[in-house]
Amino acid sequence: MSQRQTRSDAQRNREHLLAVARAALSEDATTSMNAIAKRAEVGSGTLYRHFPSREALIMELYRREIAELIDLVPQLLDQHEPMRALRLWLDEVRRYAALKYGVAEVIHAATNNGLDDDAYAPFVDAIDTLLSAGIGAGDLKPGLDPEDVLLQLSVLWRIDPDADPDRPDRILNLIIDGLRA
Known about the structure:
By secondary structure, the chain is mainly alpha-helical. The mean pLDDT is 92. The protein starts with a helix and ends with a helix. It has helices at 3-27, 33-39, 44-50, 54-79, 82-110, 120-136, 146-153, 167-179. The protein contains eight helices and no strands.
């Protein structure tokens, strides 16, 4: 087997492990590494070879989720009016919040409560891009601060997704209503 084939197989395995871990941790944030390996139908050694600790796995999921959210902004603005793009993006943030709900403590510890988070500024910039588009279209209030919006959004990762499945949507509606011109 060639080195290239081995690398692509390893990458597919890693992607599979991440997908399984994301689903498992979204359902139950206390899911163990062994349970994730079993669900992925691999040995625990395979999982630990890719992710040497539970924190490493969670942080990789976090980095990927945040990068996907950031990368989604220009796509949504290319395809939709600013308010629709904002709502679609916030729906994706809500989806992400279901994962972060149970693992936020790990992420906050690993990023020094966000102070050492390389994704913070790009995420705030993504929010700013959406707000600027909405302000430019006359749909949103001028002078909105993207960090204020992020602070509002942070309530989403404090909502137990199983307790009241409609609450995140209600919260998003309140946030959007507060942003409207």
